[in-house]
Design brief:
The complex is a heterodimer. By secondary structure, chain A is mostly beta strands. Chain A has strands at residues 4-7, 10-14, 19-25, 30-38, 44-51, 56-59, 62-67, 72-77, 86-94, 100-102, 106-111. Chain A is 0% helix and 60% strand. In chain A, 37% of the residues are buried. The chains are: A mainly beta, B mainly beta.
């Protein structure tokens, strides 16, 4: 059974800092891994989708990497801004399945 | 283009009542998913539709939960005889062809069972 873990559960940084959020998964037989952000009381916004054949994806100040062999993905946020404050969730899609298995998220606070 | 919409945004009900939650996916998306987000539990998968069929219902927590999708579009999640432990945010997502493609989420319905 796939398990997805995100560490740390919460992170507070000053504005302008570069930061890395971590996601680990127990079963490397994944189709893809998706990163989302969730603002309080809101749904999920998709940030990046990395297919299993890819090593990384970039969108603006965000870069996500995937290392299937080690069961890890990281989300790198460059030059963080207060507007980046949210909970970041990663989710793995298991091969042969349609279920996304989510981590419990990292709550990021960027202080002005 | 419109995103995934859900209604109602909030629902307060009394224990034992039935509730219906609605999801309108992005037009043209063949796959539709329901998830539940509870405090301390994270996001859990409930059910997946491809077209009007539900090949995976494995996440439905009990037989009080059911869902249908009509016309390959709108889906309704029904919870019968609601219990307090059903209180959660119910999220719907859709994707173009299935989970190998990006999932787009709606804003959710917050269900409170008194």
């Amino acid at each position: 059974k796939q398990e997805v873990t995100q560490i740390p559960a919460a992170l507070s940084v000053p504005e302008g800092e570069n930061l890395v959020l971590n996601c680990s998964f127990t079963d490397s037989a994944i189709y893809n891994l998706q990163w989302f952000r969730q603002d309080p009381g809101k749904g999920l916004t998709s940030l990046l989708l990395i297919q299993s054949s890819q090593r990384e994806q970039t969108s603006g100040r965000l870069n996500a990497s995937l290392d299937k062999s080690s069961g890890r993905s990281t989300l790198y946020i460059a030059a963080s801004q207060p507007g980046d404050s949210a909970t970041y969730l990663c989710a793995a899609l298991q091969g042969g399945s349609e279920k996304l298995v989510f981590g419990k998220g990292t709550k990021l606070t960027v202080n002005p | 283009g419109a995103g995934v919409s859900q209604s109602p945004s909030n629902k307060v009900t009394e224990k034992g009542k039935d509730v219906e939650l609605r999801c309108d996916p992005i037009s043209g998306h063949t796959a539709l998913y329901w998830y539940r987000q509870s405090l301390g539990q994270g996001l859990e998968f409930l059910i997946y539709f491809q077209g009007n069929s539900a090949p995976d219902k494995s996440g439905l927590p009990s037989d009080r939960f059911s869902a249908e999708r009509t016309g390959g579009s709108v889906s309704t999640l029904t919870i019968q005889r609601t219990q307090q432990e059903d209180s959660a945010v119910y999220l719907c997502a859709s994707s173009l062809v299935g989970a190998v493609s990006e999932q787009f989420f709606g804003p959710g319905t917050r269900l409170t069972v008194l």
